[in-house]
Every structure is written in structure tokens, then in C-alpha cells.
UniProtKB/TrEMBL annotation:
Keyword Hydrolase: yes
Organism this protein belongs to: Baia soyae
UniProt GO BP: dGTP catabolic process
Record carries keyword Hydrolase: yes
This protein's name: Deoxyguanosinetriphosphate triphosphohydrolase-like protein
Family: Belongs to the dGTPase family. Type 2 subfamily.
Region (Disordered): 1-26
Length: 441
């Protein structure tokens, strides 16, 4: 494959699209990855993220993260990682560097497939779709990009480079579920990047790679419940995964403090424990700043932002690049290299995430909203499978054009997965006679 003359980190095939662009005849100074960025930002699926739950339900307040602001923060952190690595890591040079526009675009897109009510909505849709091929948020993102959003055959018609950058779990969902023997152990879906119905686009994405590269990228291990889990991911995807973890563990923890789920004093104790593992001056200063914060001060939100900014910078500046294979073994840098976090900082990150899980996600307030959301999705799915006239006009047409139960269920699933939290709540109220949204309680 011919390599791009300006940046040998990417090959010509990375800039290719599955179909011709409808705007290809219009002069445009942007490169293909920058066009991907624009298509995502201007998509309806991206806008809907503003009314979808990140961790804390939309009813709790009006300052905390939604799925949209979370995605924007992931993109900002991912861009910071790219800039830092390009400037400071010997692996990336002037003509062999990470593309910031590509990584930022993929980061903005990585959560497009999440349904209403966060991961609990994902679990509910998977339960509904088990007889029809299952549901998984990452696979739904791939489906949105390649089919649902924009052109009905090509979706947003993204570059192969962008699709590879969101390939966190390079396996089809049906294959990941293939060896399950006990359905009771599999309430949650396995991690996968595409559905069987989207295999054509999935195969197109992997087509330029050698047999050895594809075998390495799609390698799996079996989990105790029988699911198959992939063990590798592309270079840019490893960056976005780190940015996602950092954003979740820091910004959602910041929301937890601002909304009263956690006291500032508890955060000081949480961070201070890890000073013996990490002596970075930035982290030490962050802890010093935390000790001076008072929960009732007007400047709390601003100072928390500064503290978490310092912690995020510490994470970014200490990331490591690992070469898994030589260029002779695996020609593509996007498969032969990966970015990871040192174990001591990984411990800090995981401890932050655990606090969010224990104090926020498992709190009564969040669990009540999650339970109600799951129930709503089950009831919406059942109603629309029994009466397709409840679907939107476009989805009715799609429903009538397909012949199998699995394809009809996928149309219903796509419609519900695209709903915002508030739209799903209002539709449920119209169908089942509830006069008030549970957000009003």
C-alpha cells in the first residue's frame, strides 16, 4: 500500500471512504479527517447526546456532564495526548505523527451509539434484542456512522481511518456471544464493535491489512461466562480509551463533589494516598490546592476545575508508547503501537473511577432513575414490536421493507436507541398514561 507522502503514520487506504462523497466536487481546504470531524459535529446523532445521561441523570441538576459534554471533554483530552506525544515522544516525528483531527473526531463519535438512560438503557435494549442479535453501544456507534446517520447505505461515509479509531473491540457481536452456554450469566452484552448485519462495512474497514495484522487485531480470549473479548485495539483507539477513562474518573468525580455526592475532604484523602507512588510536582500541587478548598466557598467549582486540570495534565504527561511488533512483522503503526498509562497512575485513575461507581452510580437516587429508565425501554420496545404504527414515519417504511423478525426488531431498536432521555420519557407517558415525567419527582 502506498504511504501518504506527508505523514507515513497513515496509509492511502486510511483516507478512503466506502463510497464517493456527495460534496467531492466542491473546493474544500480540509483534509479527509477534518471533513470527518465536521460531519460528526453537524450530525443529529451528535446533537442528541446533549439530552442523554452520562453518569448522573438529567433531572439532578443543570451543571453536570451529559453524554455530549463528556464526549467533548474526551475529545479535548485526546487532542492533548496527541499534541504531547507528537512533541515529546521519539516514536512520532514530523513525517510520522498522530493526526489530531482524526483522534478528536473519533473521540467525539465514540459514544454516538449510547441509548437513553446510559449503560442501564444499553442493558435493557440488549435484553430486548437477545433473540434478534443483541445490542451494544459501540456496535451501535459503528452502525450510526456507516448506515443510520445521513445516507441510508453509507451513513456519514467516514474514512477508514476514523472507523479504525473507534474500533475498541474488533469483533462482531454475534461472534462475541457465540460460546455462551448459560444466559443467566449474560445480562449485559459482550463488548463488540459491529453487528452481524453491518459485517460488510466491518470487513471493508479491515480489508487493507495483512492476514497477520487482522489476526493480531481480532485476537480474543474467553471470559468465564463464555463471552469472547478482544485483547488488542488500534493505536488511536488506545488514546481515546485513555482519554475516556481520564474524563470519566476526573470530571465525573468533580460533578460528584459539586452535587454533594462526595465531600472535598474525602477527595483529599483519596488523592493523598497515592503520593507514595507518584512524586510529580503537578500532582503534589493539586493536593495542596485541594487541602485549601472549602466546600461552601463560592469559588469551589472554579478551583476544583484547576485541581482536576492539574491531575489530568499529570496523566497525559506520563503516558507511555509501546511497540508490540517491528515494522517487518506488522507494517501498520496503527496496529504495531499502543499508548498506555504507568501502573502507579493507573491505580490512581481506577481509584477515582471506583469512587464514582460507589458513591454516584450505586447511589439510591441514580439507581432509581436507572431502574425506571430500563423499565421504560422494555415497555417501549414491546409496544412497538406489537404495533409498528407507533414508529416514526421513516421507521415505519423501513419496518415494512424488511421481512425477518430480526430485521424488524433492529428497526425498532435503532429508533429507541436514538431517543434522548426526555423524548423516551415523554413517549412512554403518552403510551402508558403517566401524566408526569419521573424527572419531575
Amino acid at each position: 500500500m502506498e504511504r501518504n507522502e506527508y505523514n507515513t503514520c497513515y496509509q492511502t487506504s486510511d483516507y478512503e471512504r466506502r463510497g464517493p462523497s456527495s460534496m467531492s466536487s466542491i473546493p474544500d481546504a480540509r483534509d479527509p479527517f477534518e471533513k470527518d470531524y465536521g460531519r460528526i459535529v453537524h450530525s443529529a446523532a451528535f446533537r442528541r447526546l446533549q439530552a442523554k445521561t452520562q453518569v448522573i441523570g438529567l433531572d439532578v441538576g443543570d451543571i453536570h456532564r451529559t453524554r455530549l459534554t463528556h464526549s467533548m471533554e474526551v475529545a479535548q483530552i485526546a487532542r492533548g495526548i496527541v499534541i504531547h506525544l507528537n512533541e515529546n515522544n521519539a516514536v512520532f516525528q514530523e513525517k510520522k505523527s498522530l493526526d489530531a483531527s482524526l483522534v478528536e473526531a473519533a473521540a467525539l463519535a465514540h459514544d454516538l451509539g449510547h441509548p437513553p438512560f446510559g449503560h442501564h438503557g444499553e442493558y435493557a435494549l440488549h435484553e430486548c434484542m437477545k433473540p434478534y442479535g443483541g445490542f451494544e453501544g459501540n456496535a451501535q456507534t459503528f452502525r450510526i456512522l456507516t448506515r443510520l446517520e445521513g445516507d441510508k447505505k453509507l451513513g456519514l461515509n467516514p474514512t477508514r481511518g476514523l472507523l479504525m479509531s473507534i474500533l475498541k473491540y474488533p469483533i462482531l457481536l454475534n461472534k462475541a456471544m457465540a460460546d455462551v452456554t448459560d444466559p443467566a450469566l449474560t445480562q449485559h452484552p459482550p463488548k463488540a464493535s459491529a453487528y452481524q448485519s453491518d459485517q460488510e462495512a466491518f470487513d471493508w474497514m479491515l480489508a487493507p491489512f495483512t492476514t497477520e495484522e487482522r489476526a493480531f487485531l481480532t485476537r480474543t480470549k474467553e471470559l468465564p461466562n463464555g463471552y469472547l473479548k478482544t485483547v488488542h485495539k488500534p493505536l488511536e483507539c488506545s488514546i481515546i480509551e485513555l482519554a475516556d477513562d481520564i474524563a470519566y474518573a476526573t470530571h465525573d468525580l468533580e460533578d460528584a463533589i459539586n452535587l454533594g455526592f462526595l465531600r472535598v475532604e474525602e477527595l483529599v484523602d483519596l488523592v493523598q494516598v497515592f503520593l507514595k507512588y507518584n512524586k510529580e510536582p503537578v500532582l503534589q500541587q493539586a493536593i495542596s490546592d485541594l487541602k485549601q478548598l472549602e466546600s461552601d466557598r463560592d469559588s469551589l467549582k472554579y478551583q476544583l476545575n484547576r485541581v482536576f486540570g492539574a491531575i489530568i495534565s499529570t496523566f497525559i504527561q506520563n503516558l507511555e508508547v509501546h511497540q508490540l511488533f517491528s515494522a517487518d512483522q506488522v507494517p501498520s503503526m496503527r496496529i504495531s503501537h499502543i499508548v498506555s498509562m504507568p501502573e502507579d497512575l493507573q491505580a490512581i485513575l481506577e481509584s477515582f473511577s471506583q469512587v464514582v461507581m460507589d458513591r454516584v452510580i450505586h447511589s439510591q437516587k441514580v439507581q432509581m432513575v436507572a431502574f425506571k429508565g430500563q423499565r421504560m425501554i422494555h415497555q417501549l420496545f414491546e409496544a412497538m414490536m406489537n404495533n409498528h404504527l407507533l414508529l416514526s414515519e421513516n421507521d415505519r417504511i423501513l419496518y415494512q421493507q424488511v421481512s425477518s423478525d430480526s430485521d424488524r426488531a433492529r428497526v425498532v431498536c435503532d429508533y429507541i436507541a436514538g431517543m434522548t432521555d426526555s423524548f423516551a420519557t415523554k413517549m412512554h407517558a403518552r403510551l402508558f398514561g403517566h401524566s408526569r415525567s419521573f424527572f419531575d419527582h
